Amino acid sequence: MTYSIYCRNLSIIRQLFKSNSALISQWCKLNNQSCTTYAKFQVERNIVCSASGNVIGSVAHWKPLTLLNCFDRLLKSQRRLRATHSAYTGSATAPVSDKEDEQEYNEYLREICAIPGMGQRVLVIQPDIKGGSRKYVLTTKELKLEETCTLVHTLPNWKVVSKKIVRTDFENTSEVFGSGNFEVLKNEITSSRNISAVVIGIDKLNGLQINTLQEAWGLPVYDRYTIVLQIFKDHAQSPEAKLQVALAEIPYVRSRLMLIHGGFQTEAAHIVGGVTPMTLDRRRMLLNRRESKLKKQLEALHSKRQEVRLLRCRNNVPTVAIVGYTNCGKTTLIKALTEDETLTPENKLFATLDVTAHQGLLASMMKVTYIDTVGFISDMPITLLDAFRATLEDALMADLVIHIRDASHPDRKLQIISVHKTLENLLSEEKKKNVIEVYNKTDLLSPEEAALLDPSVIQISAVTGQGLAELGKAIEKGLLATTNHLKKVFRIPNNHQMLRWLQQEAAVNSITPDPRDSQYLIAEVIISHSAYGRFCSTFSRKK
């Protein structure tokens, strides 16, 4: 599309909206700036995208084909302002419906921090932080860069086209980088035709930093928090997971609202009518209503989950929670332990967001329920963790916890410490004693690399089955120590109903003929305290 066509489209829009001269002048002011930034980049790069997937404030939004759409949003915003004014001045107005709330929230989200529903060609910049609280410990800048790139590739149709490490004193500048590096990056990004977005490998940038970078580079800028949040939104399948992701989003959106309130309002906000004190109040109310609604819905689901846990307790089936860093092989291990062919492990980050339960049998025939959980990540924002706390309760209340470590990952030391730090905040002192440490993916190591692993940690491969027998014994030993289960040996007459009772109510490990009397059998059994009491009462045996 040529620049002349762009101007012709603008001329048509001037005629269509000449009755709104104030709004047009506001748009023209922005357009004059955009000709050298947003519009210029868009024309030169010839990026093709649908108008419906555009995000206000992103480069793609300023294409001529979307200008009408932009003004349509602007007029809708003006109508909402009038409706809000009526509400604040006491005029009669209909109550805001959930549908209207949802529509307004989504539009607000697009203004400040949403990720477009299309692919991106991304430059990933990993700051090499000189010092302060964000200085890398137990990892390297190269490994952090690779993890950030992996996060980006997890999003559909996102591709890392360039990546680099840039030294910075991150904590003391709104530009993130020093003036020299900042200018070099600005020249590189603005002259490139192959970049449509920039991702900074920092857990969370503040709103001022994001706005400063976007204004200088003319491209959308994202941090790790935004990328992880979008991955969660893409992968959430169950109603509970979707609710938890929506709840985790609220604090981030609220922080951006506070930034706008402080005067750092984006041009994107201006084009939809600006953010006045009245709209700020309305948006605060909108966020509060949404947060309250999500919490109530989650509480209802939480009650149902408690009922399921109570049923498990009544059935005396012990639970084992599988936890670990994202993509360490948790689902693959559960599939190997349960032989459940319906499980489909995926080699991607945060493939599992829903906590699911799977029945399995140990070699002793003891029934076990394995709990699959959401994966952890380094510098996991506390707001994400808090939103998923209700789901993680299944892991917190399990009889035993298995921490899976990816033995093949070059950054495994940081991953192990990140998981331990998270568990430290989640588990009680008693539960911390019931954690089994396991190295997975040892089949990917050379003998020399395997020899360097901690010998006190069980080594397995969920793919080849190596070490699973040893793990099964450790699980049985751990469950016997933490649950009301006993190992018992019974001498039972042949074809007696005692055996049938035990097979229904307990885990019968083995049955062998009594070498002293062929009329009897020797049964090795794992049985709960309550079931053992019923057995003694039913068959008039002494405990």
TrEMBL record:
A cellular-component GO term for this protein: cytoplasm
The record's listing under Pfam families reads: GTP-bdg_M (PF16360), GTP-bdg_N (PF13167), MMR_HSR1 (PF01926)
The Gene Ontology terms for molecular function here are: GTP binding; metal ion binding; ribosome binding
Q: Which UniProt keywords apply?
A: GTP-binding, Magnesium, Metal-binding, Nucleotide-binding
Instruction: Tell me which PROSITE patterns the record gives.
Output: G_HFLX (PS51705)
The family database entries (Gene3D superfamilies) matched by this protein are listed as: GTPase HflX, N-terminal domain, P-loop containing nucleotide triphosphate hydrolases
Residues covered by the Hflx-type G domain: 318-483
Please name the InterPro entries in this protein's record.
G_HFLX_dom, GTP-bd, GTP-bd_M, GTPase_HflX, GTPase_HflX_N, GTPase_HflX_N_sf, P-loop_NTPase
- The protein depicted here goes by the name Hflx-type G domain-containing protein
